[in-house]
TrEMBL record:
This is Uncharacterized protein. Residues 1-18 form the signal peptide. Gene3D superfamilies: Crystallins (2.60.20.10). The keyword Signal applies. The lineage of its organism: Eukaryota, Fungi, Dikarya, Ascomycota, Pezizomycotina. It comes from Clohesyomyces aquaticus. Keywords: Signal.
Length: 132
């Protein structure tokens, strides 16, 4: 009987810790519309691995958010992650509107979401989310 109770408690703890709203390093939120609207998904990704976007997000990202403790390099000018990415997304600024993005390479406002294909996140011990 004690074994069954312990198993139940452990199962509940696992479900609680797997909650998609939990804010942890390595979690990103991707949405099809600006300001974290439309179809959204919060996923936990491993650090230093290129993440290829699939439908409905492939070349269709309106906003992108990374949790404190990490930053991500997004790619919108190539089919997959590039060595340096096109832009860095930090948790204190995030990217609430990729449809009107200030492209660091050109200094112009572009629709980066229409080209967003992939991203890679890395641990950042100095990255703090000031909006939590």
């Amino acid at each position: 009987m004690k074994t069954a109770a312990i198993s139940t408690v452990l199962s509940l703890l696992a479900l609680t810790s797997a909650s998609p709203t939990r804010r942890t390093p390595g979690n990103v939120t991707i949405c099809t519309e600006a300001n974290y609207a439309g179809t959204c998904e919060t996923i936990s990704v491993p650090f230093n691995d290129c993440q290829q976007l699939a439908a409905p997000y492939f070349k269709n990202v309106g906003s992108f958010k990374v949790d404190a403790g990490a930053y991500c390099r997004i790619t919108y000018t190539a089919d997959t992650c590039t060595m340096h990415g096109d832009s860095f997304i930090f948790p204190d600024t995030n990217a609430p509107d990729l449809r009107h993005w200030d492209d660091p390479a050109t200094g112009t406002i572009i629709d980066a979401g229409a080209g967003f294909t992939s991203f890679k996140c890395q641990m950042c011990t100095n990255c703090q989310d000031k909006k939590v």
